């Protein structure tokens, strides 16, 4: 059970002094019933209870990456902690790992087969079918070979991997699932009595199409392209607005003004949308007002 609290407040971006994987092992020694306080030392460095390594091994691990407030990073064989969000007095910091540390740990990554259509426990182990409400506990479960999570066991294994990990030139890159396949699976898994739910954040849509477009904000999938400049989009409405801007500039062989519906009476510029025209006219007014001063 975590006994880590923030004492006086820590600003976002605060970092610790560098430490090693051996420091993590040393920090596992001692009394687990004592509180560790995250704070800044006299030099403005993040520390706690005998050093940053002590703070690291005692902090509770975040259930998902967006929930983290502390991040353990690895560079050139050394480790450091960084505050990813401001911590107020008496806040409990939650720890997760930066990309370089995740690669050194060889932390398992999740794929579509690890997500199931279960509203309360959508993440399921591919090996033993154990279910979890959040993604990171499943990653830790796989990391430990389906053994129950125990902080000391985890940090001993983590320290061993961090100590022996190769440099960046030898790190492997995890394969990325096909985004179209991921979108199709996530859209199907999101079906429920309440509507169509996002498996990433739980947001519910009344229509399958709305969920499909929303999923692209998580996956980054942008299959739609502008016929004029080939810029990629995930949302058709954003693509249509973009194409109208090309038409307003007279691009794409449609002549000056192209498909524009509104024309500025001051300078003759053609614009695709009424609100664009209103904004443009206000800009003229602001220029004239500033010139009168």
TrEMBL record:
What GO molecular functions are on record for this protein?
DNA binding; DNA-binding transcription factor activity, RNA polymerase II-specific; zinc ion binding
Domain C2H2-type as annotated: residue spans: 196-223, 224-251, 262-289
Q: Which domain of life is it from?
A: Eukaryota
Annotated compartments: Nucleus
Keywords attached to this Swiss-Prot or TrEMBL record, sorted alphabetically, are: Metal-binding, Nucleus, Repeat, Transcription, Transcription regulation, Zinc, Zinc-finger
A Pfam short name: zf-C2H2
Q: Which GO terms describe its cellular component?
A: nucleus
**SMART domains per UniProt:** ZnF_C2H2
**InterPro entries (UniProt xref):** Znf_C2H2_sf (IPR036236), Znf_C2H2_type (IPR013087)
Name the UniProt record assigns to this protein: C2H2-type domain-containing protein
User: What species was this sequence derived from?
Assistant: Arctia plantaginis (Wood tiger moth)
Lineage, uppermost ranks: Eukaryota, Metazoa, Ecdysozoa, Arthropoda, Hexapoda
């Amino acid at each position: 059970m975590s006994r880590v609290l923030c004492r006086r407040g820590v600003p976002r971006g605060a970092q610790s002094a560098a430490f090693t994987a051996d420091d993590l092992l040393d920090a596992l020694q001692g009394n687990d019933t004592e509180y560790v306080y995250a704070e800044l030392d006299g030099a403005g460095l993040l520390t706690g209870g005998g050093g940053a390594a002590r703070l690291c091994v005692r902090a509770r691990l975040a259930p998902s990456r967006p929930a983290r407030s502390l991040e353990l990073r690895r560079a050139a064989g050394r480790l450091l902690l960084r505050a990813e969000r401001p911590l107020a007095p008496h806040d409990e910091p939650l720890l997760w790992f930066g990309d370089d540390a995740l690669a050194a740990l060889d932390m398992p990554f999740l794929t579509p087969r690890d997500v199931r259509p279960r509203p309360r426990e959508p993440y399921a182990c591919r090996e033993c079918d154990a279910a979890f409400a959040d993604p990171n506990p499943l990653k830790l479960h796989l990391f430990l070979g389906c053994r129950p999570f125990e902080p000391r066991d985890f940090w001993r294994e983590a320290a061993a991997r961090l100590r022996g990990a190769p440099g960046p030139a030898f790190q492997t890159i995890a394969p990325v699932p096909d985004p179209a396949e991921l979108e199709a699976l996530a859209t199907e898994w999101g079906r429920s009595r309440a509507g169509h739910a996002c498996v990433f954040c739980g947001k519910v849509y009344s229509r399958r199409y709305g969920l499909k477009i929303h999923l692209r904000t998580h996956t980054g999938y942008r299959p739609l392209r502008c016929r004029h400049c080939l810029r990629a989009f995930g949302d058709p409405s954003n693509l249509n607005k973009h194409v109208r801007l090309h038409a307003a500039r007279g691009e794409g062989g449609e002549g000056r003004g192209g498909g524009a519906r509104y024309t500025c009476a001051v300078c003759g510029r053609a614009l695709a949308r009424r609100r664009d025209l209103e904004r443009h006219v206000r800009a003229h007014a602001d220029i004239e007002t500033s010139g009168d001063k």
